[in-house]
Structures are given as C-alpha cells and as structure tokens.
C-alpha cells in the first residue's frame, strides 16, 4: 500500500481554509475559540464545522490547534471544547500542554505540537508510546536527525516546509513575558526578535548599530521534499495562520505542483486527498511575504540565516537601479512592474526602505515619493498588484473531483450513474416515457454537452457515455435535473463514507526520559504535573510564566548564532578569524538589554536578561 504524503496549510478563518483546500491542501490547521498560539486567529465551533464538511468532501482533513499552555482554571473549559470539536468531525488536535493527555477525552487523534520542542529521539518515542499519533518536528533538525527519529519510532512525522521561522526553539521563548507579560506560550507573542538592537561587546564598544540582529530569514525547504520524504516526513506544513489569503493560495499551489511532480509515477507514495487543481496564476514563493529564504539547518549549518536589514517582507528581486530620470526610476527588468506595486530597497545605512509605484510605463517606475537611491541598488517588489488581483479572485484556484458519467435506460425510463475517482457511485433514476426522437435522429451530442456542464459543483465529468437501444428523446431540462441530482447525491455519499480515524487514549506509566524538568517544559497546571509524575518525573519546575525572576532569567535558547553570522565562530571560522570577540556580547534596544551566552558544544546560543550571571565558555 502506498504511503500518503500530505500538504498541510494554515487557515486563519473559514474562508482561508476553503481557499487552502481549493488550492490543493490535503489538510488544514485552524484555531478554535480559545487556546491557540495565535490569539488573533480564533474561530467559532460553527465555522470549524463548516470547514470540516468542505474538507471531508475532498477527503482532506482538518486539524485544530490547541497549542497554548493551560492554567488550572482553564482545564475544564478546554476539555469541553475538545468534545465539541470532536462532535463536529475534527480529525485531530495539535497540542502542547500534556494536561490534555490526562483529561477525559473523546477518541480523537492527538498530534504533538512543535511547541512541545520535538527534537530528541527518546522524547519523540515517548510521545508516540503515550498515545500521540503524530509529532510536529522542531524546525532546527537536519535530514540525518529526522531519519534517526523516523527509524527509532513509527510515529507520523510532520515538518515545516515554508514560512516564517521562530528564532527560538519553539515553545522556549520567554522574551514577550519578560518584556511586557505577554506570553508566546499563551498565544500573545510580542515579536521582540523582530526589533532593532545595538550589539555591544565586553569592552562596552558598539559593534553594530540599530540592526535586526535576532530577525532571521523565512523557511523554504521545498526543493528538499524528496529527501525529507525518504527521511520519514509524511506531512509538509506551511507556516502562517495570520497570513492573508494570497499567501496561502500561492504557497499551497506552489507546493501542490512541486509535490505532484515528485509523486507522479511513484510506486511508494501517493497524494493524501482527492481532486485535481487548476490555477489562473503562476505561483512563486518570492511573490508572497518573505524576508529572503533559508533552508535553516536541514543540510547542516553552512550559510548566513539572518535578515538584519528589516523584519519586513523583501519580496521578489526585480533588478538593479540603472539610474533616476526626472521623476522616475529606470530599473533592470522594469517592464515587469505594474501600477500599484510596492518596491523595497536597502539604503546606504543598511536599512530597508519602501516606495509605491504610482505609474509603470516604458520600463520606468514613477513613485509616490522620489527618494534618493544610489545607482546599482538592488530593487525588490514586495507587493505585486497584478498578481494579488488575480490570486484574490475566487476562481483563481479551483479543485475538482474526477467522475465518469453513464446515461442508460431501464424499464421505466432512464438512469444516470456517476462514478468518482475514489470509486464512489451515485445513481439517479428517472421515470419517463421512452419515445423516439423526431425523424429518429440521435441527440447524444446535445445530451453529452449538458452532462458536461458541472459548473460550480466540485466535480468534472471527464468521460461521458450514453447507452441507448434507440434514439430516445430526453428533454434538456430532465438531463440537467438528473445531472444536478446525481452530483448532489454523490457529495452526500462521499461525506457519509468519510472515515475519520479515531484513537482512545489509554493511560500508561512508561518512564519519561528525564526525571527533572526545568521551566522550559512549560508545566503550568496540576494535570500536566500529574502526567509527568505518573511517568516517573520527580522534580518539576513551574512554567516561566508562573515564576519569572525579573532581570535574571534566560529568555531564549536558539540554534541561531550571532557569532556565526559575524564569522567569528571558533568552530566554523577558526582558520579565517583574526580576532576574537570580547564577551559577554550584549543586545540593547532602548531600556531593554540582553546578554548572549554561547554553548559551542551543542552549537546553541542563549539570551539572558541583563542582571543574569553566568560563566563564559572558553573557545
């Protein structure tokens, strides 16, 4: 049996979810009324139910994100919400808080969110053994590590493929709490990593001014799909529950086409849902919001991943500025530009600036404000007006399920049989007098033309056969009525036959790989504590949010490294580095101040508040 490979798309809301399905997603993940890590992307149970119905028609799945940490007074509300989600047909929940594993749950499938910091083979095997059907892997893993995890446990593996990156290990960033009591683990990340900072060394000298030193590029490992599948990944996740519909449709359609070309002719893998998509636009990742792209650590650490000039979208590279002529810019490939485009460039102070194109004509761009730009500056388009206009159209991405139609006769009249690509059959019978046509002429071609008009249904009639013993007359109105009914019925049959996987949790007591848990395990309620104690943990620190020590705390752990970005890494730049940096390095932004600690053995960087004390590791 072929293994199903899935594209998993974000849905900010019902409309976004439907657009993702129409663009080719095999599954979507969406927020519920509460407890999702994007507090600005919540949805009613009714909207989730509507999305479930639409997705299941294509045998696509709907996952609901419940990936915040919970407080004691929220546990019962969360449990009740889970039951409601189960009742409306949701396929799985994506969870962070282990309290959910202690609840009285319906037999709903559970996935371990990336916020559970899934990068250790033993812990992932533990999660599988405790009842998780799927684990969303940490983005920091490389191909070798993913393969190792896959071989150690037969749990389903999900991995991000495109979108924004959290600079911190997911679930282990506490900057928002420390700076304003907004918790990322509670759905309210303040994005402190996207702020500009000064970098100050141990002598007090400012090495870099006003640069976005914690802002990193966006993720794109779409060209690694074959390698990731071979390593064990079955689901490719697009980041972006807060992104607009153009971003979702562009990313999904791009990956759909990329994955389909890989799956074509494969004897091992197949797509995970039904239907085929057609598009009115040519998708390209650089046409959506992006800060430039990186494959992060999938192929080990080998390139710079920082996006220091700006945390905003850079967009698509157009060309260099040739010169400024009067009130316009002459740009290489300027003929690609349209009225209403947004352009971006990096000025001489290494800062991102933007302009708006009032008019694009004869290769010249006339901006809303004529800024002084140096000849030779790289110009990017971060708002493609013509592309957005096409993609926003409802018919720009259409998904249809293939069917064959057979119109034949019976004793009392006629019957129409629709068979879809998954083998489901719908039959409509029409009691109608069988009379031969005028002049005994065949009207088969007319009937076929009407049967082919599938219009706004989710079906195409790819093959139409008519089997009559004589040239029977059948009014066009009756043909249309039969076609409408057979497809309405087929949708009902597909939904009735959709098989949701179910899994009833059974409490186990096999040991957790650790016996002591620090605050980074995010234990914020009594049920999570019970869960870990049942699995042999003896010491459990409270979550950061419940015990923050102002000014002295570690607020982030990351695989990203500022020393590496500056080519001052004692491991990678040993032979080319002329001088070492005097530590501790400090990030400063107004009143905010952080110390950087470099752990070279695991190749990680920690960020601490200004009053923290720690030993500096010797190179």
How does this structure look, described?
The chain has 619 residues and is an alpha/beta fold. It has four domains: 3-165 and 219-273, TIM Barrel (Alpha-Beta Barrel), CATH 3.20.20; 178-216 and 512-522 and 531-619, no CATH class; 315-392, Thrombin, subunit H (Beta Barrel), CATH 2.40.10; 403-496, no CATH class. It contains 14 helices and 30 strands. The protein has an eight-stranded parallel β-barrel, surrounded by six helices. The chain has a six-stranded antiparallel beta sheet with strand order 9-8-28-29-30-27. Strand 3, helix 3 and strand 4 form a beta-alpha-beta unit. 45% of the residues are buried. The mean pLDDT is 95.
* Helical amount: 10-25%
Radius of gyration: 28 Å
CATH class of the largest domain, please?
Alpha Beta
CATH second-level architecture of the largest domain: Alpha-Beta Barrel
What proportion of the residues form beta strands (DSSP E)? 25-35%
End-to-end C-alpha gap: 52 Å
Characterize the main sheet: 8 strands, parallel, barrel
Find the CATH superfamily of the largest domain: Phosphoenolpyruvate-binding domains
Number of strands: 30
Main sheet: strand order: 1-2-3-4-5-6-7-11
């Amino acid at each position: 049996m072929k293994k199903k490979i899935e594209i998993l798309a974000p849905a900010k809301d019902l409309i976004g979810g439907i657009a993702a399905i129409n663009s080719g997603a095999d599954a979507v993940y969406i927020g519920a009324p509460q407890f999702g890590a994007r507090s600005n992307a919540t949805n009613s149970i009714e909207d989730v139910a509507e999305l479930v119905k639409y997705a299941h028609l294509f045998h696509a799945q709907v996952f609901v994100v419940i990936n915040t940490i919970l407080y004691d007074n929220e546990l019962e509300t969360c449990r009740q919400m889970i039951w409601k989600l189960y009742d409306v047909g949701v396929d799985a929940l994506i969870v962070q808080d282990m309290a959910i594993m202690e609840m009285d749950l319906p037999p709903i499938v559970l996935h371990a969110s990336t916020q559970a910091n899934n990068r250790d083979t033993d812990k992932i095997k533990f999660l599988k053994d405790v009842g998780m059907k799927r684990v969303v892997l940490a983005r920091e893993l490389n191909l070798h590590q993913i393969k190792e995890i896959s071989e150690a446990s037969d749990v389903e593996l999900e991995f991000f493929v495109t979108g924004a990156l959290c600079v911190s290990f997911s679930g282990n960033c506490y900057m928002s709490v420390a700076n304003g009591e907004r918790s990322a683990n509670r759905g309210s990340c303040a994005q402190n990593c996207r702020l500009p900072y000064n970098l100050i060394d141990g002598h007090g000298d400012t090495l870099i001014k006003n640069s976005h030193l914690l802002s990193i590029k966006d993720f794109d490992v779409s060209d690694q799909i074959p390698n990731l599948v071979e390593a064990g990944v079955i689901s490719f996740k697009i980041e972006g529950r807060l992104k607009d519909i153009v971003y979702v449709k562009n990313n999904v359609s791009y990956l759909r086409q990329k994955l389909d070309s890989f799956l074509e002719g494969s004897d091992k893998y197949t797509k995970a849902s039904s239907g085929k998509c057609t598009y009115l636009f040519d998708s390209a990742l650089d046409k959506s919001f992006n800060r430039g792209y990186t494959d992060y650590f999938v192929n080990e650490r080998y390139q710079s991943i920082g996006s220091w000039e700006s945390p905003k979208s850079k967009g698509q590279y157009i060309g260099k500025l040739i010169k400024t002529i009067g009130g316009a810019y002459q740009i290489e490939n300027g003929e690609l530009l349209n009225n209403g485009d947004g352009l971006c460039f990096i000025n001489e102070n290494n800062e991102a600036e933007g302009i708006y194109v009032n008019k694009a004509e004869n290769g010249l761009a006339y901006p809303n404000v004529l800024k002084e730009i140096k000849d030779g500056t790289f110009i990017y388009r971060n708002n493609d007006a013509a592309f957005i206009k096409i993609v926003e159209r409802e018919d720009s991405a259409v998904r249809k399920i293939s069917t064959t139609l057979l119109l034949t006769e019976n004793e009392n009249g006629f019957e129409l049989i629709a068979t879809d690509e998954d083998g489901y059959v719908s039959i409509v019978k029409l009691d109608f007098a069988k009379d031969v046509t005028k002049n005994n002429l065949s009207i088969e071609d007319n009937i076929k033309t009407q049967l082919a008009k599938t219009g706004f249904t989710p079906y195409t009639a790819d093959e139409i056969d008519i089997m009559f013993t004589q040239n029977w007359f059948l009014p066009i109105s009756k043909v249309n009525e039969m076609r409408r009914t057979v497809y309405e019925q087929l949708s009902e049959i597909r939904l009735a036959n959709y098989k949701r996987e179910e899994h009833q949790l059974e409490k186990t007591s096999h040991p957790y790989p650790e016996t002591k848990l620090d605050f980074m395990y995010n234990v914020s309620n009594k049920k999570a504590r019970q869960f870990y104690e049942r699995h042999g943990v003896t010491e459990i620190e409270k979550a950061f949010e419940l015990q923050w020590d102002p000014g002295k705390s570690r607020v982030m752990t990351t695989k990203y490294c500022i020393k590496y970005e500056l080519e001052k890494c004692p491991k990678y730049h040993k032979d080319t580095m002329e001088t070492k940096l005097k530590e501790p390095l400090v990030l400063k932004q107004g009143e905010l101040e952080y110390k950087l600690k470099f752990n070279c053995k695991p190749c990680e960087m920690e960020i601490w508040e200004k009053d923290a004390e720690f030993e500096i590791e010797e190179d």
